[in-house]
């Protein structure tokens, strides 16, 4: 009887460990056009899913066309679902900081407007503290030669972008924009973060 109880307890413990291992968390980043950034985060080990969308504005259920005007106040963002046992929030922040220019206000490359701002929408106090600490270190060491202007704000309602924005690079890899703008970012990712890739 003791053996059966021990076996049952072992199975329960394994099931609990497995369930905890399956627990996911969310991270939300805005770092310019979500077509580019979606392709980057989809390649990371531990990232379960990436949704392109809009956050931080004052209009419910905005369309892409509305967000592009800059009047809704939304940023193009990624909502990343990840397994913290496989990849940490700090790892995601590192990819975030190194995959765009966080020193340009409301601009990334040729894209200009508040919808392209560098922003972190945190979901927990720990995420807030890690993001603020990382940003402070970047500024203290003058890592970019200019001040980091990334906004760090509490998560707000997230609106999933239209279906044609999802998996954009995967579905349009041969398009000129993908080859000229996204592909170089992916090549950089493979050099800098090779150990973190799927």
Automatic annotation (TrEMBL):
InterPro entries (UniProt xref): Met_Sox_Rdtase_MsrA_dom (IPR002569), Met_Sox_Rdtase_MsrA_sf (IPR036509)
Signal peptide: 1-19
Reaction(s) catalysed (UniProt annotation): [thioredoxin]-disulfide + L-methionine + H2O = L-methionine (S)-S-oxide + [thioredoxin]-dithiol; L-methionyl-[protein] + [thioredoxin]-disulfide + H2O = L-methionyl-(S)-S-oxide-[protein] + [thioredoxin]-dithiol
UniProtKB keywords: Oxidoreductase, Signal
Annotated ranges, domain Peptide methionine sulphoxide reductase MsrA: 26-178
Catalytic residues (UniProt): 33
Top-rank EC class of the record's enzyme: oxidoreductase
Name this protein carries in UniProt: Peptide methionine sulfoxide reductase MsrA
Species annotation: Pedobacter rhodius
